[in-house]
Amino acid sequence: MRVAIAGAGAVGRSIAQELVQDGHQVMLIERDRAHFDPNSVEQAEWVQADACELSSLEDAGMQLCDVVIAATGDDKVNLVVSLLAKTEFAVRRVVARVNDPTNEWLFTESWGVDVAVSTPRLLAAMVEESVTIGDVVRLLTLRQGQANLVEITLDESTPFAGRAVSELTLPRDAALVTILRGGRVIVPQPDDTLEGGDELLFVTTAAVEQDIKTALGY
C-alpha cells in the first residue's frame, strides 16, 4: 500500500518504520522543521508541508494514497487532515490519532475518520486486559463506532472448558474472531474447544457487549 502519515513526531516516525519494514510505501508529511528528519526513516518519502493545506496535499500526491494516518499531537489538525483526505482525495482508509479522550466523539465518519485510535484508551484497555478475568474489555472502536473489538478472559474454572466453540450461544451482532492461548493465535473453528485462561476476542456492537459476558457465564 501507499500510506501517507501526517505528523513526523515520535508517533509518526514509529508508525512509518513499522510500515516500511512490512514493505509498504510511506510518505511522511511534517510542517515543523524540528521534526523534519529524513535520516530517522530513510526508506520513507519526506515532504515538508502543512498537512492542513489542500494545495500542499495535492502537491504531495495524497490522491495516490490508499491509506492516510493523521498522527500529529493536535486533535484539530488530525480532524482537518482526515476530512481533507476523505472528501477531497477520496482516500479509502483514514486512521486518526486521538490525543485528548474528551475529543473522541468528534472522530467519526462526519470528519472522514474510519478508525480512531485513542492512546490513553488503548493503554487503559491493555492494563484492564492484563488483570481482568471475566469482564469485557474494549480494545478498539471500528467503523465510526458501529463495532468494537473486545476481549474477555476465561477463568481457570470456567464451565466452558472442554466445550466446543459451536456450543457458545452468542448474540446476533457478535462474532468470536480469535482465541489467544499461551503463545498461540487460534482462528476458531466450530469443533475447537475452549480452555480456562483463554483470551477471546470478539467483534461486536456496543449494545450486546454485556450479552457476550452473560453468554460466557459472567
From TrEMBL:
UniProt keyword annotation of Ribonucleoprotein present: no
Matching Gene3D superfamilies: NAD(P)-binding Rossmann-like Domain, Regulator of K+ conductance, C-terminal domain
Pfam families per UniProt: TrkA_C, TrkA_N
Transmembrane segments: none
MF (Gene Ontology): potassium ion transmembrane transporter activity
Record-linked InterPro entries: K_uptake_TrkA, NAD(P)-bd_dom_sf, RCK_C, RCK_C_sf, RCK_N, Trk_Ktr_HKT_K-transport
GO cellular component, as recorded: plasma membrane
Keyword annotations: Ion transport, NAD, Potassium, Potassium transport, Transport
Record bears the keyword Ion transport: yes
Protein name: Trk system potassium uptake protein TrkA
